[in-house]
Amino acid sequence: MTASTPNLKPAGYGTASSSSSGSSTPQPSRSPKQNIAPVSIINNTDVESPLLSPKSNNPLLSNPQSLSQEHQIESRSLQKGLSQRHLSMLGIAGSIGTGLFLGLGGAVSTGGPLGALLGYAVIGLVVCSVQFALGEVTALMPVTGSFVRHAEVLVDPAMGFAIGWNLVYGNLLSIPSEIVAVCVLVKFWTGDGLNPAAVILPFIALTGGIGMAFVRVFGEVEFVFALLKILLVVFLIVLGLVINLGGVPGTEVIGFRYWRDPGSFVEYIAQGDWGRFLGFWAVMTGAVFSFAGVESLAMAAAETRNPREAIPRAVKRVFARIVIFYGLAVFVVGLLVPSNDERLKGSGDTVAQSPFVLAAAAAGIKGIPSLVNAIVITSAWSAANQSLLAGTRVLYGLALKGQAPKIFLRTTSWGTPYMCVLLFTVFMFLSFLSLSENAISVFWWLVMLTAAGVLVSWSSILLNHIRLLKAMKKQGISTDRLPWHNWWTEYTSPVGLVMCLVILFTSGFSVFTTGRWDAAKFVSSYLDIPIVLAAYLGWKFFRKTSITPLDQIPLEEAFEQAEENLSVQTQGFQPTKKTRGWTRFVSWIWD
């Protein structure tokens, strides 16, 4: 494998050229006159960029690269192998997993069937604000690392550094945690007789191999995994409704029996209405982590063909699919199992505690546990692949900005940042800590340090969008120039940001109540906050960065580049034809 040389063709072209060997260092700049940027070569035409003005206070001057130079490096080093079909499934593959298949019973146990449904519905609205904010910003600036790089431009370089390294750290640890989860799931069939190494080594080889492959291979693998998840979700929802309506021979109609007794809400910690509200709130904070991963579809934006159209379409469809699937699944689970069933306590640890499995067993249906277990194993592998993609692309973006060693800019001839993948592969061997009980306890504590990173990431996405709209207003730029915009996001982003921050600071509220102190829960709920703050303040002090004034955010260059890329991408481009009837539904699931 060889390191590729940066290409001086702007990012966003429909067909990426092949890379040649050489050093992955940026081309030297030249400044023909004072206050004029170094000249970049675009289509063999000299173009002056005001972004790199020597006297500019733009935050990008804290690094040697400008936005245009970074795009050029990405265009040369990374390949555009992902389509809108892949992006849609990436978001689904990252967010539908054990939280849906195994963990919904815990939500019903804590908040009751209606409390759980309302909790997931509220978080679904927050996800809507996050997804649409992400889509609007990423369609304008489709860069590797997505909202991490957006934060550097729109807010403060120190914020991009803090959010970026928090994501890298979290993903470095999440992959071995998924491997450990697979070891536990395999024991459902094998018992304790199988050596975990027999599972760990093939898992590492497969995950590392996919990470090293052309990004389209990753997209196809995740597409298949997501399709399996969707089919299982649809099957379990239909099966649950059949069981509830007495469609299985020998069973009676359940209906809304469990909504009446033991009730639609559960009192949590306190009594009365306050206790029922706390139950709903506890479900809502837990639902955040079930939806985690929806933001991953934009991480490889620079490797996406025609991101101006693909990302908005993917955002809309991923949001609709996930909210509908989760909403229906929570509703059906609330119909199938009473909230006071003791088997739901701690639900999510094994397949045997899945509410769908409990309902199927009560109806006398065999084979469901093994089916769910098999799909959950693919979910764990899918989550590991997602973490590998997100983590390596964020690390690549940090290196591009001078916030990580330049060695991580090296890519293969087919556009994979192989040094980033190798680092993540080394950390996969932490999964061997599962062979020692004491070591695995320490390992899970490390994993929990970044459990709140989901809300930190969502907050960053919403803040980026708010800053973009405010900067456009300050600079007199109409929102009509945005590649994709919805008028109502101006209001939903601030509301979503407030909700994310409130949930972030109250997610561990139960540990502060009498007799419920839990050190592990406290760590998982709050320790990520000082970690991110320390990284932010440390980089701000080290590099003397500041929050970028709204009138100095380089929006004009971003718009010019987006409009130029659009003219190139639409040459010979055929608009997507709308389907009708049942083919439209199939297309909605597939594409």
UniProtKB/TrEMBL annotation:
- In what residue span(s) does the Amino acid permease/ SLC12A domain sit? 86-547
Keyword tRNA processing, does the record have it?
no
The reply on keyword Transmembrane helix is yes
Transmembrane stretches, by residue range?
87-108, 114-134, 167-190, 196-218, 230-258, 278-298, 318-337, 357-383, 416-436, 442-463, 491-513, 519-539
Q: Where is this region: Disordered?
A: 1-40, 52-75
What is this entry's stated membrane topology?
Multi-pass membrane protein
Its keywords, alphabetically, are: Membrane, Transmembrane, Transmembrane helix
Q: Which organism is it from?
A: Podospora pseudopauciseta
Q: What is its main location?
A: membrane
Protein origin, superkingdom: Eukaryota
Q: Which compartment or compartments is the protein found in?
A: Membrane
Residue ranges, compositional bias (Low complexity): 17-32, 52-68
The protein's name in its UniProt record: Amino acid permease/ SLC12A domain-containing protein
Task: Tell me which Gene3D superfamilies the record gives.
Answer: Amino acid/polyamine transporter I
